[in-house]
Amino acid sequence: MTPKHPWLGLVLFLVVCFAAAGIGGAVTTPKIATWYATLAKPSWNPPNWIFGPVWSALYCCMAVAAWLVWRQGGALQARVPLTLFGVQLILNVLWSCIFFGLEMPGLAVAEVLLLWAAIAATMVTFWQRSALAGALFVPYLAWVSFASLLNLTIWRLNG
Fold it and tell me: What average pLDDT does range 133-154 have in this prediction?
């Protein structure tokens, strides 16, 4: 059963994803010029300005992917993939709270491994419902893989 107003679903998923982005940004932004600036970072650390555009594109892809899964039959039929989606989104925000908010890169390494697993699980369940939805999670998983290595390296350089 296709949802009655599918475009409203897209708007809702965009709002949810960018609300998560807003929470993460509110925790992260005040620490960029202060605590984060004092950390030793590897030579391959991207410039700070790149994170905003990359994350904006990734949150858009996440929202569209969730919408594609949802619109094929609504929330009840997509309960498992959408629950995994919610879990990974919560873990996404939690990482910012741990790394930047608590200033604990070591704990953030452990948390980002859970996030990575949740993203991978979400991607697989999305792919089973829509190849495009699954494919939209590939850049997100790739970026979090890179971010995980960056997190680990920063922790080791500053530990």
Answer: 98
As given in the structure block, the two tokens for residue 21 are 């982005």
Greater model confidence, 1 or 147: 147
Cβ atoms of 81 and 134 closer than 8 Å: no
Global pTM? Answer: 0.94
What are the two backbone dihedrals, phi and then psi, of residue 137, each rounded to the nearest 5 degrees? -90, -10
Q: Which of 43, 62, 50, 57 is nearest to 126 (CA)?
A: 62
The Cα–Cα gap between 128 and 81 comes to 9
**Backbone torsions φ then ψ of 68, nearest 5 degrees:** -60, -40
Report the sign of the C-alpha dihedral through residues 94, 99, 101, 104, in that order: positive
Please identify which residue in the block is written with the tokens 């994170």.
Answer: 51
